[in-house]
């Protein structure tokens, strides 16, 4: 949304400039408050909103890895949010609503795309279960934050990505700032010894709340850096820079010690191979059903074998990997099972409407059984909620909460594969495949952790979903335009 009337733009510029000077003087002279130091940044953002509103989305992508929770900056607030990204996203939501009300329309192709309809169904159910929630205030806050993530990073981003050159920009902005976090965390890690696994849990603070969310986002962006480094349709300079950044993020990925991220990358590479080899869906389905059947038939033997694994998470990489299947003594694995069990018991009590979006952390404590509790168990969801993007909605919004979220994933995968198969532009073809592989890393990671309530993961999750939809609608054969020149 850009204000085109020159007189209005000039008037707004002078009004905001004068207001800025007066406000700055008042804070510094009268109140002696340091908050005035942030006013130039606020002023620049307001100018962006006037002259080039779409740049705010790029600003959000850049600041997401560097954003800080409010309690880290100003302790004592009864609520929390990530600064500066969530206020920016809220501003985008407000301006987006005003724009739609002013124009009285929005692109119907976007609104009625299968992915958009799946997202709308999920949002509608979240709204309904917020009304019936056991803690309505918590649930409506959850609903509002989900709305501003989707409006800014999906609906508005689709329009931005319809100009093909903006796709790489969105990716690179996050990568550049993420590399700053990698340098910061690696430098802190050096103080404890690079191979100190325990240090990996807190060296990424305050930018990421723990090493698992950090590992998850690194897994999402490594496929794009691999694409930029290997594809010949990008310039030599871009490929060299991409190799450098790939090395930086790969170092962070290894030092994250996130087993879930490592596992998700392996499975995502398998999905890439399936698509590249054009393996038929029927073959995949038969294989999957066969594996499930074998597991059911031999589940007792499988669990007996797993119970024999006593490997603890460790700085030794092979030991750390082997500890993934330790369900006997590894506290991290056992705590996940505890949280999952609580979610399933909560679902059994309220299978239709659930306890309400965002309420798991406040409601799960009574569902913990003494036999399931571990040395790291708490009653306040410290260190994570349900530890699952799938069981969390099941407990909070009932069966349709899970099914509508799975519907989003299913329609995204279907759209990506369909679009990939019909594209003739090599660059766009590879972007769609890479975006899908990147998203698959999080689809898998979502079985073990849940981070979509944060800007850190929402920026790539909804942004890459928007990329796939935008290419399907605007840049694929039969779309509005087809731009073949790389950024």
Write structural notes for this entry.
This protein is mainly alpha-helical and 487 residues long. The protein has 2 domains: 6-65 and 78-112, no CATH class; 113-487, no CATH class. It has 20 helices and 2 strands. It has helices at 6-31, 39-51, 55-63, 70-73, 85-103, 108-111, 114-131, 136-161, 165-190, 211-230, 236-255, 259-276, 281-297, 299-307, 317-322, 331-349, 360-363, 391-422, 426-445, 455-475; strands at 68-69, 82-83. Helix 16 packs across helix 18 and helix 18 packs antiparallel against helix 19. It is globular and about 75 Å long. Mean pLDDT is 82; it is low at 481-487. Residues 245-406 form the O-antigen ligase-related domain. It is a multi-pass membrane protein. Its main location: membrane. Keywords: Membrane, Transmembrane, Transmembrane helix.
Protein topology:
Layout: H1 6-31, H2 39-51, H3 55-63, E1 68-69, H4 70-73, E2 82-83, H5 85-103, H6 108-111, H7 114-131, H8 136-161, H9 165-190, H10 211-230, H11 236-255, H12 259-276, H13 281-297, H14 299-307, H15 317-322, H16 331-349, H17 360-363, H18 391-422, H19 426-445, H20 455-475
Helix pairs in contact: 1-2, 3-5, 3-9, 5-8, 7-8, 7-18, 8-20, 9-11, 10-11, 10-12, 10-19, 12-19, 16-18, 18-19, 18-20, 19-20
Keywords: Membrane, Transmembrane, Transmembrane helix
Transmembrane segments: 12-29, 41-61, 81-98, 110-128, 140-158, 170-191, 211-230, 237-254, 260-277, 284-303, 398-416, 428-445, 457-475
Domain O-antigen ligase-related: 245-406
Task: Summarize the entry for a quick read.
The chain has 487 residues and is mainly α.
């Amino acid at each position: 949304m850009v204000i085109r009337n020159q007189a209005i733009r000039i008037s707004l510029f002078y009004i905001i400039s004068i207001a800025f000077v007066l406000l700055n003087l008042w804070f510094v002279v009268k109140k002696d408050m340091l908050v005035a130091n942030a006013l130039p940044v606020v002023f620049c953002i307001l100018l962006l909103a006037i002259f080039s509103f779409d740049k705010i989305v790029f600003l959000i992508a850049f600041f997401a890895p560097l954003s800080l929770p409010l309690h880290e900056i100003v302790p004592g607030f009864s609520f929390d949010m990530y600064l500066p990204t969530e206020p920016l996203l809220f501003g985008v939501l407000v301006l987006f609503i005003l724009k739609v009300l002013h124009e009285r329309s929005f692109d119907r192709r976007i609104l009625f795309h299968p992915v958009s309809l799946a997202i709308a169904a999920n949002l509608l159910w979240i709204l309904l279960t917020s009304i019936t929630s056991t803690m309505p205030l918590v649930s409506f806050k959850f609903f509002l934050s989900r709305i501003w993530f989707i409006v800014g990073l999906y609906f508005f981003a689709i329009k931005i990505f319809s100009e093909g050159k903006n796709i790489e920009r969105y990716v690179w902005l996050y990568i550049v700032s993420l590399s700053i976090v990698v340098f910061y965390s690696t430098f802190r890690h050096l103080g404890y010894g690079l191979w100190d696994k325990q240090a990996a849990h807190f060296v990424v603070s305050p930018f990421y709340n723990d090493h698992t969310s950090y590992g998850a986002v690194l897994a999402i962006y490594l496929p794009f850096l691999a694409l930029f480094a290997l594809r010949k349709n990008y310039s030599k300079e871009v490929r060299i820079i991409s190799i450098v950044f790939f090395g930086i993020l790969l170092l962070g990925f290894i030092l994250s010690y996130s087993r879930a991220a490592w596992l998700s990358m392996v499975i995502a590479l398998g999905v890439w191979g399936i698509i590249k080899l054009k393996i038929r869906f029927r073959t995949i389905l038969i294989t999957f059903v066969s594996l499930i059947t074998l597991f059911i038939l031999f589940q007792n033997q499988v669990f007996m074998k797993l119970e024999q694994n006593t490997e603890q998470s460790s700085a030794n990489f092979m030991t750390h990997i082997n500890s993934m299947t330790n369900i006997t003594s590894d506290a991290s694995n056992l705590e996940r099972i505890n949280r999952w069990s609580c979610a399933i018991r909560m679902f059994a009590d309220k299978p239709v409407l659930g306890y309400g979006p965002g309420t798991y952390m406040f409601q799960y404590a009574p569902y913990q059984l003494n036999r399931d509790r571990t040395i790291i168990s708490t009653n306040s969801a410290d260190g994570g909620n349900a530890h699952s993007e799938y069981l969390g909605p099941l407990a909070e919004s009932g069966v349709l909460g899970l099914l509508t979220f799975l519907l989003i994933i299913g329609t995204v995968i279907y759209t990506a594969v369909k679009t990939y198969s019909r594209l003739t532009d090599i660059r766009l073809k590879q972007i769609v495949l890479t975006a899908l592989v990147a998203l698959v890393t999080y689809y898998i990671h979502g079985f073990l952790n849940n981070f979509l309530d944060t800007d850190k993961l929402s920026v790539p999750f909804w942004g890459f979903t928007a990329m796939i939809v935008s290419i399907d609608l605007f840049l694929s054969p039969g779309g509005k335009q087809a731009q073949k020149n790389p950024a």
